[in-house]
Amino acid sequence: MSQNKLSTSFDFIAVGKQVLAIEREGLAQLDQYINDDFHRSCEALFHCNGKVVVMGMGKSGHIGRKLAATFASTGTPAFFVHPGEASHGDLGMVSSQDIVIALSNSGESREVLALIPVLKRLRIPFIFMTGKPDSTMGKAAEIHLCVHVPEEACPLGLAPTASTTAALVMGDALAVALLRARGFTVADFALSHPGGELGRKLLLRVSDIMHNGKDIPLTSRSASLREALLEITRKNLGMTVICDAQNVIAGIFTDGDLRRVFDMGIDFNRARIADVMTPGGVRVAPDMLAVEALNLMQARNITSLLIAQGDYLIGVVHMHDMLRAGVI
Q1: How much is the pTM?
Q2: What's the angle, vertex CA 214, arms to CA 209 and CA 218, rounded to 5?
Q3: What does the pLDDT look like over 95-116, one tens digit per residue?
Q4: How many C-beta atoms surround the C-beta of residue 253 within 10 A?
Q5: Is the CATH number of domain 12-184 3.40.50.10490?
Q6: Annotated binding site: which residue ranges?
C-alpha cells in the first residue's frame, strides 16, 4: 500500500537522474534497430497512396496518437484509430490504399491481434512496432520495427516508461526520414499550422490585414493642411495618403511630418497639404508577406506602408495591424 509520509532521507533528484540514465540507455540500444526493416517501413510509407493509420492500446495508444499527429503535420497524411473501436465499426475508416502502423510493447495486444485476419483479407498492409520480435505480433508483421529496451525506468517493471520513449523516438525517426525524403519545406509546414506563429508569418499577406475602401485616410492634393489633419484624426492611423481623384498616389503625411511643420511655423489654415507632404511614400504590393512588410517598416523606421499596384493606392497597413494579427 502506498505511503503518504515522506521519508526525510528520500532523494528525488537521485531517482530522477536514474530514470534519465535508464531511458538514455534504452535509446542508445535503439540505434541498432534503424536497419533494413526501418528502410522498408519508410519506403512503404513513402509510397502509400492513402493515409497512415496508427493504432495502439493504453500507453502505446497515447504514443500512437502523437505519432499520427507528427506524421500529419510533416507531410504524411495520418490519423489514429483505437483498435478496440476498430473491431466495432471504425475499421471502416481504413481503405486498401492505406497502411496500418500498430504499436504494442509486448506484441500481444489482443485488440490488435484480432484485426490481423481482417487486415489481410482487405489487403491492407501493416507495420507492427513492438519490443519483442518473437511475439505474436512480431511474427505476424509484414514489416516489424523493434523498439526493445533493456529495462523500464519503473522499478516494478510495470509502468511503460523507457519502452514508450523508445516507441516515440522510433516514430519521430520515421516521420523525419519521410519529411526529408519528400523535400518538405518550411512553407509546407506552415500550411498545416495556419493557427500557429509560423503559419501567421508565412501565410499572412498585407492584403489580409490592410485597411481599404473608406477606411483609408485619404486627402486630395488641393486640400488644406487643416483638412488633412482632420482626416488623420478621423481614421486614427497617424497618417493620410495624398491622392488624385483616380487614387493615384502623390504623397503621404504622417504624425512625424506634423512635428516638422510645427517647427517651420506654417499657417495651418492657409497651407496646402501638397506643399508639406512627403512625395511618394513607401509602398508595397498586396501579395507581400506581412512579416516581410514588418521587416521593411522596421528597417525604414516607419509605422505605415502604402499597399499599391504601381502608383494606384489600394490599401494602407499600420504597425498596429501587424500587432493585432500576431505577426510581431
Answers
A1: 0.67
A2: 100
A3: 999 999 999 999 999 999 999 9
A4: 25
A5: yes
A6: 82
